[in-house]
């Protein structure tokens, strides 16, 4: 009898976490490493949010809370959805979890049965397919490549839907590409979904506030009210508010689904950290004046990285609409060799050779379901990014 579960054999560890850990290990060993793998802002959590957490500690708000969130935070989330997305939810339709990942995982565990299919546009966040597998479902990746700016087309969505389809996972702006869907592009997708009432929508809006130029964020239930009763609108405070370590995600959806997700959470983690919840309350209801500053900094970094990577031999780097990632294509590097004789046959070998020879850590594209590419997180300083991109340019120039 095998000790480990058969389910575990169907999934793999997160590639982004693995790259980040490898970079840390090399740095600890004394190597000059620049880590561009982690999707984590380098800004400190704003002071008013930190102060709110301290007040909560001093006030003794350190005990268990309701499994799916304190009433004050749920009310703030309802207000946020109404003000920013035009979506009306009651507190009974809100759930709070330990990061956005737990929100998605709870929903999948609560709804998937063997044979149920989940459509996932690729490139995708590395965790989506594995969470579906852990929950007993079948991920159905649909590749949206460079020719469509990494965006799924209505025809592709239509063709992927079967009688077994239960969920469509939607992420805009996207991790790993930063691609954002316009209102018209999203409306075309929701028109398809309206023809298939068995398909639910899981909208991961984590990068909502990190959009650039004149791009206008929108979310499926906002664009098509007819999808409201079968949409789980997911978000969190990690990225926009520089609160990754606080671990707060949340979602709004139909009461029956929210209750089922609460049941899953009650038998796993129970409530998320009480102090983090009070900090998140301040994040959502307090001053928002730092958000434009964060956006401006990220946009400047995006422009720097896109410009420098497009000057690297063999690389094509599209300009994303949001998030803090770029997803360069390295087709021009495939088949070439490093000075040390390593032949670049795929993006994993490219990323490994880049790390070993230059100390720059990126995540290879196969982990996100589309090759030959790699992902750069530009959530670090201009100085670090400039040095990292210069190293990538030199590395690519050395290939023969």
Describe, in short, the structure shown.
The chain has 13 helices and twelve strands. With 400 residues, the chain is α/β, with parallel strands linked by helices. The protein has two domains: 7-44 and 290-398, Aspartate Aminotransferase, domain 1, CATH 3.90.1150.10; 61-285, Type I PLP-dependent aspartate aminotransferase-like (Major domain) (Aspartate Aminotransferase, domain 2), CATH 3.40.640.
What does this structure look like?
By secondary structure, this protein is of the alpha/beta class. The chain folds into two domains: 7-44 and 290-398, Alpha-Beta Complex (Aspartate Aminotransferase, domain 1); 61-285, Aspartate Aminotransferase, domain 2, CATH 3.40.640. The chain is built from 13 helices and twelve strands. The chain has helices at 15-28, 47-58, 71-85, 100-111, 127-134, 154-160, 183-194, 220-223, 255-266, 274-285, 290-310, 347-358, 382-398; strands at residues 34-35, 94-97, 117-122, 138-143, 165-171, 200-204, 231-236, 249-252, 325-326, 360-361, 363-364, 374-377. Strands 2-8-7-6-5-3-4 form a seven-stranded mixed beta sheet, with helices on both faces. A three-stranded antiparallel beta sheet has the order 9-12-11. A two-stranded parallel sheet has the order 1-10. Helix 8 (220-223) links the parallel strand 6 and strand 7. The relative contact order is 0.17.
């Amino acid at each position: 009898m095998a000790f480990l579960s058969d389910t575990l054999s169907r999934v793999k560890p997160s590639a982004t976490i693995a790259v980040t850990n490898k970079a840390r290990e090399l740095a600890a060993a004394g190597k000059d490493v620049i880590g561009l793998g982690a999707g984590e802002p380098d800004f400190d959590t704003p002071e008013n949010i930190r102060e709110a957490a301290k007040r909560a500690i001093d006030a003794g708000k350190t005990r268990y809370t309701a499994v799916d969130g304190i009433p004050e935070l749920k009310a703030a989330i309802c207000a946020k959805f109404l003000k920013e997305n035009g979506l009306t939810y009651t507190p009974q339709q809100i759930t709070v979890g330990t990061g956005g990942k737990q929100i998605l995982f709870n929903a999948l565990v609560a709804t998937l049965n063997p044979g149920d299919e989940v459509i996932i546009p690729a490139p995708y966040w590395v965790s989506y397919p594995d969470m579906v597998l852990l929950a007993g479902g079948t991920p159905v990746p649909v590749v949206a490549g460079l020719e469509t700016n990494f965006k799924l087309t209505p025809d592709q969505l239509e063709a992927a839907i079967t009688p077994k389809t239960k969920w469509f996972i939607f992420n805009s702006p996207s991790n790993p590409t930063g691609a954002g869907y316009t209102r018209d592009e999203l409306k075309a997708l929701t028109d398809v979904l309206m023809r298939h009432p068995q398909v639910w929508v899981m909208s991961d809006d984590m990068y909502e506030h990190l959009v650039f130029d004149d791009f206008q964020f929108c979310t499926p239930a906002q664009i098509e009210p007819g999808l409201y009763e079968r949409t789980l609108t997911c978000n969190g405070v990690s990225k926009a508010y520089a609160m990754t370590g606080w671990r707060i995600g949340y979602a709004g959806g139909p009461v029956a689904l929210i209750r089922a997700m609460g049941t899953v959470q009650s038998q796993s983690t129970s409530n998320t950290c009480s102090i983090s919840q009070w900090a998140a309350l301040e994040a959502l209801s307090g001053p928002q004046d730092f958000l434009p500053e964060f956006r401006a900094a990220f946009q400047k970094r995006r422009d720097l990285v896109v410009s420098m990577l497009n000057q690297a031999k063999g690389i094509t780097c599209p300009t994303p609409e949001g998030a803090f990632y770029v997803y360069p294509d390295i087709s021009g590097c495939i088949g070439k060799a490093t000075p040390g004789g390593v032949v670049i046959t795929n993006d994993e070998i490219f990323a490994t050779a880049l790390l070993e020879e230059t100390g720059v850590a990126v995540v290879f594209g196969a982990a996100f379901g589309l090759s030959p590419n790699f992902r750069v997180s530009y959530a670090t300083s201009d100085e670090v990014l400039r040095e990292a991109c210069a190293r990538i340019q030199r590395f690519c120039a050395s290939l023969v």
